[in-house]
Amino acid sequence: MNNMDIEVHRAARTFYAHYTVLLNVPNQQLDAFFSLPTWFAISAAKYLEMPEVAGRRLSDFVRTTADAPQSSPGLAGSDLDLLIQRQRSGELTPEQLVAEMQRLREERSREQQAASPQGVAAALVRKTGVPLSTWADAGQELLEVLLPVENGQPVEYRGTRARELGLSRFTLVNDFPIVTATYGYSRAEYSPRRSNDDAVQSQLNPFPSETQYAGRFPIYVDQVEADALLLRLDHDAVLNWLASNDMPASIAPGEDPALSRQAFFAAIFQDAPLRQTLEVDRAQTRMVFGLLHTLSHIYVRQAALLCGLEATSLSEYLFPRALSFAIYCNHRFGATIGALTALFEQSADEWLRSVFNSRQCVYDPVCRDSSASCHACTHLGETSCRYFNLNLSRSFLFGGPDIRLGRIRNGYIQTVAQ
């Protein structure tokens, strides 16, 4: 006790702030969209690029629903003009004209029903073979991966290097809307006490209530619209990689095999505890998430070398169900200087190929023979990783030992390079 130092209770050394990082969803603009019972199905359909939603924005579904007539739709003027022209030319008799009008009216009614939110949801389940409950669980994440592209000004990478490395898409987003929300703090430890018998002597405390807001507890929010690099893995390449490691995927029997293969990843992440170490009972989930998480960390570390920002200034944002991740600058100064834009425009090929630089670690063979993951090769600072540096290993990329699955025979990079 004689060696204890006195600290002001507000000093940063005396508490651990608890916060979460979220992608800002413009709720005021999408309130009407979220009121649709099957909004998550529309998000999933747009992510899967289904023809039922092609060329339509999220707000279009709200207008379509509000403006939809209660009765069967009539024929457009162009339809009527064409039918009358065919009848005048003698191609159709009066009886055939009536029958053709009825056929077109029924066809337009089916098209209207298929384009409605309920029709999109039914088509999603029918084509993918995945139940609506799974899409409800994945809806928020798939919406988040859509919004930066739909609301921003994305620039697509046009080179061939991405495909060679098993990436299906590589995009620069100039206004990636990241929100950091700090909702409380703990004193002795970062992890709150989970029960009265828990050995961890700390608890999560809210910030003092605000009298001017009826005694509500405040949540302090900071929003940054930063440059971001958005990458998506090729789902067929990932499925082939799983099969090469004797983990073939159980694809749902949907009408569209290509959509069913993509839907497999929404299913395996349902209820997955991604902020814990994934065990062997979820082997496929561990493989896919470990691959995505490790690749994200490698690219964060390599981006720091090429764009001039510290690794602690860059963060990841993972979309596991979409096989995607984003890399962005996590503070205001770096977000405004265009470092990631310059990386995309001037060094994209070099950055993509830099994944091969992570094949070795300075602590090999000790690191390689244990977990192939340490502070020198895959770990990031706590400001950069939302998943506490769990489920990482260079073995997912290049093959080798894994602490839960044993030995991974084929790494993803070597599989796609064959």
Describe the protein in words.
By secondary structure, this protein is an alpha+beta fold. It has two domains: 27-131, no CATH class; 155-176 and 224-416, no CATH class. Helices cover 43% and strands 15% of the residues. It is built from 16 helices and eight strands. It has helices spanning 27-34, 39-48, 58-67, 77-88, 94-115, 117-128, 132-151, 161-164, 235-244, 257-268, 283-307, 332-336, 339-353, 366-370, 395-398, 412-416, and strands at residues 16-23, 155-156, 167-186, 220-233, 314-319, 324-329, 400-402, 406-408. The strands form two sheets. Strands 1, 2, 3, 4, 5 and 6 form a six-stranded antiparallel beta sheet that branches. Strands 7-8 form a two-stranded antiparallel sheet. A hairpin with a 3-residue loop joins strand 7 and strand 8. Helix 1 (27-34) packs across helix 3, helix 4 (77-88) packs antiparallel against helix 5 and helix 11 packs across helix 13 (339-353). The longest helix has 25 residues, at 283-307. The protein is globular and about 105 Å long. The chain starts with 15 loop residues before the first strand and ends with a helix. Residues 66-72 have low confidence and may be disordered.
What are the defining features of this structure?
418 residues, alpha+beta, six-stranded antiparallel sheet, two-stranded antiparallel ribbon
